[in-house]
Amino acid sequence: MVDEIAEWQANQPRGTRYGRVQALRQTLEAAVRWGYMRSNLAKLAGRNCQPAPRPVRTFSRAEIGAIAAEMSPRMRRFPVFAAATGLRPEEWQALERRDVDRHAGVLNVRRSVSSNEVVELGKTNRSRRQVPLSPRALGAIDALPPRLDTPLLFPSPGVGVLNLNKLPQPRLDAGDRGERRTQSPRGFTTYGRRSHRTLSPPGSRCSSSPESWARASR
Question: In three state form, how does the secondary structure of 16-53 look?
């Protein structure tokens, strides 16, 4: 049985091997704890080497400008500010004007957005932090239209928190030979051919039984 699992592991695609094997190891480990098995055969089959992380894609200023040009005038400062500060979307969504310390040249991250609601971060140094405020980030803030009805720097068209899931849907340009031009909620523009739907890997179906893994390996 150990040899069969080792052979199955070796035949898994490189992109999904680690996740599938890890799921099997966790499933069999639970079976050992519950007394259904004496040992974890997946661990005996060999190591499950974790793949190297994917390289981070860095955008140039020209590319950030091209992304901003694709957005509405009200939102063109969002990608510029996000790229200049490196904040997560849920962090810059919760920023308020009082978080901008122009004298010290820093941005105070004190809140975050969770389930479309602003929540205060813990009062530890690890949770709250200060981010350098570069001239480019400050220029993006100064270019924002003034709002007196909300303290948020990047509010929704109304008064509440900007909901990234309710931004305009992706649009298709006519005559692009099937090439799709998509404006994502986080401000990045992607280009790619239309693709057919593919089946999800077995590990994404939350299947925990060894029988299901045996079927998936055939």
Answer: CHHHHHHHHHHHHHHHHHCCCCCCCHHHHCCCCCCCCC
**Cβ-count burial of 12 within 10 angstroms (0-12 exposed, 13-18 middle, 19+ buried)?**
middle
The whole model's pTM is what?
0.55
Cα gap 166→120, rounded to integer Å: 23
Q: How far is CA 30 from the centre of its chain?
A: 30
- Separation CA 9–CA 41 (nearest Å): 12
Q: What tens-digit pLDDT sequence spans the chain (218 residues)?
A: 899 999 999 999 988 999 999 999 999 999 999 999 999 999 999 999 988 888 888 889 999 999 888 888 888 888 999 999 999 999 999 999 999 999 999 999 999 998 888 888 876 656 688 999 999 999 999 998 888 899 999 888 877 888 877 766 545 454 444 444 444 444 433 333 333 333 333 443 343 344 433 443 34
- Tokens for 13? 């695609």
Q: Which helix (H) or strand (E) holds 87?
A: none
Return the bridge partners of 191, or none.
181
